[in-house]
Write a structure and sequence with these properties.
By secondary structure, the protein is of the alpha/beta class. It has one domain: Isochorismatase-like (Rossmann fold), CATH 3.40.50.850. The protein has a 7-stranded mixed β-sheet with strand order 4-3-2-1-5-6-7. α1 links the parallel β1 and β2. The radius of gyration is 15 Å and the shape is globular. Bound molecules: pyrazine-2-carboxylic acid.
């Protein structure tokens, strides 16, 4: 029985100065790093990354910021890199998603090391039964990843202060939705 921390999409493009910067991105990156440096009890730490090559209508020149977005997190670009404040030496594996289509959930991602292992398979191999979710954006990828984690049968907690929304109200609604779906929201 292991406990995992899933860091969702703490990438430059989702932080201030990035093409899809969320207001609290830098703060959340710093605070997640404090958690990584603390005496936490996570057995494994993984990260998801939006990793777009040609994601079709996910990118738009007239984005609505709900279903369509400015170009962001292009594979191997500076914008797709993890925020520099996150000590990546603590991250055991990356799960990349969205190469050719929109992919909000980390559970759609494949391990960067072999290009194939899915997040759920990797967590199960590591005997993970409980996950804590943090990252960006609360109202999109954190929501989708946490919902899928519940569906996969993990005990799920979301650390609210370590998540940054695109839209504050939608972010709050996402946390309520997750709580109703059975997640523990740590405030
Ligand atoms: C995300 C908007 C578009 C996210 C990804 O990581 O939450 N948000 N693509």
């Amino acid at each position: 029985m292991s406990k995992a921390l899933i860091i969702v999409d703490v990438q430059n493009d989702f932080c201030p100065g990035g093409s899809l910067g969320t207001e609290r991105g830098d703060e959340v990156a710093r605070e997640i790093n404090e958690l990584l440096q603390s005496e936490h009890d996570y057995d494994v730490i993984v990260a998801t990354q939006d990793w777009h090559i040609d994601p079709g209508t996910h990118f738009s020149e007239q984005p609505d910021f709900v279903d369509t977005w400015p170009a962001h997190c292009v594979a191997d670009s500076e914008g797709a890199r993890m925020h520099p404040d996150v000590d990546v030496s603590k991250i055991r594996e990356y799960f990349r998603k969205g190469e050719y289509t929109a992919a909000y959930s980390g559970f759609e991602g494949h391990a960067a090391s072999d290009g194939s292992t899915l997040l759920a398979q990797w967590l199960n191999d590591a005997a993970v039964t409980e996950v804590h979710v943090v990252g960006i954006a609360t109202d999109h990828c954190v929501l989708a990843t946490s919902k899928d984690a519940l569906k996969e049968g993990y005990a799920v907690s979301v650390i609210a202060d370590l998540c940054s929304p695109v839209d504050k109200n939608r972010g709050e609604s996402a946390l309520i939705e997750l709580e109703e779906a059975g997640a523990n929201i740590i405030r």
